[in-house]
Design goal:
CATH superfamily of chain A: START domain
Largest sheet of chain A: 7 strands, antiparallel
Distance between the termini of chain B: 61 Å
CATH superfamily of the domain at 3-45 and 119-189 and 292-367 in chain B: FAD/NAD(P)-binding domain
Number of strands of chain B: 22
Strand order of the largest sheet of chain B: 6-5-15-16-17-14-18
Number of domains of chain A: 1
CATH architecture of chain A: 2-Layer Sandwich
Number of helices of chain A: 4
Order of helices and strands of chain A: EHHEEEEEEHH
CATH class of the domain at 3-45 and 119-189 and 292-367 in chain B: Alpha Beta
Oligomer: heterodimer
Largest sheet of chain B: 7 strands, mixed
CATH class of chain A: Alpha Beta
Chain lengths: 150, 469
């Protein structure tokens, strides 16, 4: 069984700045509205991983492993789910001068997929849109901060 | 455009500003002091000259708010002290055995910690600090706070509007009075004052002291009929040590040269005095008083929208519990979590105050149910007899001194990683019911667990056999 959804958005910024932000797991909780807390003890590479506490499932850590990392272009995480797993596939592409297209596909595989689809998918999809919007703001903020500290 | 005002630019205020910075267009911090350029004391933080310890739980919260902060602290010389491996502790019921456990404290000067947090946080372009500026009141009504009044130097009083105002001014907060002026019901406040006082001093560590020299805690002992007396000895950055001597009403530590050393040698064991005698004092002995436990029940109040309070403005525990900086971080993290879930919508203040109250409840109960047993205690809390509680606390401490599992649970609670009501397991309950099974460690056995201490003292051996508890 599979439950999946796709989201995408285009934001201002450059691929390097976006990659620096999304590959900093410890920093996710500082800007991503979906993530209340986050952490990692490993480098951002295949075989590494970390944990998050989301605002959808509060009070409990969800652990993930990095199963694919294409520096600057995207990464995929895998998290255990009851009777299956969740894959989150993130991709970043240049969409014109100073513009980057963000896309995310979420796939829940296994017997839990219908339950996930019924209870959490809608909120998670809405949060993905909020994450993209806030990533745009964070990139601007970091650029201003870098400019100020020069 | 949305604006948040944070009153108070200490640790709690700076962390609150960080939490708010992703949810409003502009954060203005009102700070009465001028920040030092380097890690240095400032007028508004007199407690900065005493021993400060950041719990593991607080360190986690700090890194969630400002990732990488603890790494910067360690790079600047802060020490990570695992309670089971790097701190020699004499509790009310004897010396704790060394145990392999990761629950830790970060030991460094408060000045260094605040400086690094400011460096991390205040490069955020959303945050502006108005230094040498004093908030003089809240603007709004009993149902909504819309800003503050403030003064800067000799300029006339001004008003600044905001969508949300956060009080992070600490234990001397004027909020109770300001809320009353807006027509809000009186804020209920509890206090329990054991007359605790600190006397502290910095030392240059002897050249032959090991780089991993342990900390030493001689805990104050309640319910003996005598004033509590204790000592904390901790390594700091830059090859320094800090000593804080601790006493409750009727037994407060002196701040004069001679009495200071005498007091250090008179607490449960003279080890701290012996270490002081081998180090070089830096500067004067500094005293701190007025260290009562105090809790303001904001969560019970019908708070005006657009207002909340954090940190010591809500609850301050006596410094023996090393919880102040951690509670500041927990409060800011609670604010950020609620902002992520609910934004600036009505009810935000109440939700944050409830989260803080939940976090504070355990440490508050633990602190007040211990400190109540010191002679001369003053309180407005209606205390029950508490004798069963007291006997349980004594047994817990006595068994923990020899039982690794219970000791690890104690450290989890002390470092604010796990609440006390969540650490108990059936095997631990069994150990507690069985009671102590071994003879307590002698001072010699306890000290032998830390060869760094023995090595330093070996040049002029001292009599450390005294056990007064």
């Amino acid at each position: 069984m599979l439950h999946a959804f796709d989201e995408s958005a285009t934001i201002a910024g450059d691929l390097d700045a976006i990659w620096r932000t999304v590959s900093d797991v410890a920093g996710w909780s500082t800007w991503d509205p979906h993530v209340l807390e986050s952490g990692t003890d490993t480098p951002f590479e295949v075989g590494g991983g970390g944990w998050t506490i989301s605002r959808i499932v509060k009070g409990r850590r969800s652990y993930f492993k990095l199963v694919e990392v294409d520096p600057g272009r995207g990464y995929t995480t895998e998290s255990p789910m009851p009777l299956g797993k969740m894959l989150i596939i993130n991709k970043y592409e240049q969409a014109g001068p100073g513009l980057v297209k963000l896309s995310r596909r979420v796939e829940v595989h296994g017997g839990f997929a219908p339950v996930y689809g019924f209870f959490w998918a809608k909120a998670f999809q809405a949060d993905t849109r909020a994450t993209f919007e806030e990533l745009g703001r964070e990139i601007k903020l970091r650029a201003t901060r870098a400019e100020t500290s020069r | 455009m949305t604006r948040a005002i944070v009153i108070g630019g200490g640790l709690s205020g700076v962390l609150a500003a960080t939490a708010l910075s992703h949810h409003v267009d502009e954060v203005t911090v009102i700070e009465s002091d001028k920040y030092p350029e380097q890690p240095a004391p400032r007028r508004g933080m007199p407690q900065g000259r005493q021993n400060h310890m950041l719990t593991a739980g607080g360190a986690h919260a700090l890194d969630q708010l400002l990732p990488g902060t603890t790494d910067l602290l360690f790079a600047a010389g802060a020490h990570k002290l695992a309670m089971g491996r790097n701190i020699l502790t004499l509790s009310s019921e004897g010396w704790f055995r060394r145990v392999d456990d990761d629950a830790f404290f970060i030991a460094c000067s408060r000045n260094l910690l605040d400086h690094i947090v400011r460096q991390q946080a205040l490069t955020n372009p959303v945050i502006t600090v108005l230094q040498e500026t004093k908030a003089t009141g809240l603007v709004g009504t009993a149902s909504r706070v819309t800003g503050i009044r403030y003064e800067k130097g000799t300029e006339p009083e001004q008003t600044l509007t905001a969508d949300i105002v956060v009080d992070a001014t600490g234990s001397r907060s004027k909020t109770p009075q300001w809320l009353t002026e807006l027509g809000v019901a009186e804020l209920y406040e509890e206090f329990l004052d054991a007359g605790l006082a600190y006397a502290g001093r910095l030392y240059e560590a002897p050249a032959d002291a090991a780089a991993d020299f342990p900390g030493v805690l001689i805990q104050t002992v309640p319910n003996t009929g005598k004033p509590g007396a204790g000592a904390a000895f901790m390594p700091q950055e830059d090859g320094r040590w800090i000593v804080s001597l601790i006493g409750t009403a009727g037994g407060q530590p002196p701040t004069g040269e001679e009495g200071f050393m005498e007091f250090a040698r008179s607490v449960g064991n003279p080890i701290v005095g012996e270490l002081m005698a081998r180090a070089t004092p830096i500067g004067e002995i500094k005293g701190s008083r007025g260290l009562a436990n105090r809790r303001r029940y904001f969560e019970r109040l019908t708070l005006p929208e657009g207002f909340l309070a954090l940190g010591d403005a809500v609850t301050v525990l006596s410094p023996n519990y090393a919880s102040g900086m951690s509670m500041a971080a927990f409060g800011a993290l609670a604010l950020r979590s609620q902002l992520k879930s609910h934004g600036l919508e009505p009810g935000l203040g109440k939700k944050v105050q409830l989260d803080i109250a939940n976090k504070v409840a355990g440490p508050w109960k633990s602190a007040t149910s211990t400190d109540r047993w010191f002679p001369g205690v003053r309180t407005n809390i209606k205390l029950g007899k508490g004798t069963v509680e007291q006997k349980l606390a004594v047994r817990w401490s006595r068994v923990a001194a020899e039982h690794p599992g219970l000791l690890k649970a104690t450290y989890q609670v002390a470092t604010l990683q796990t609440p006390q009501n969540k650490v108990m397991t059936l095997p631990l309950m069994g150990a507690l019911l069985r009671g102590p099974q071994q003879t307590p460690l002698t001072p010699a056995e306890a000290l032998a667990q830390f060869p760094q201490i023995g090595k330093l003292l070996s040049s002029a051996p001292a009599d450390l056999s005294k056990v007064e508890h």
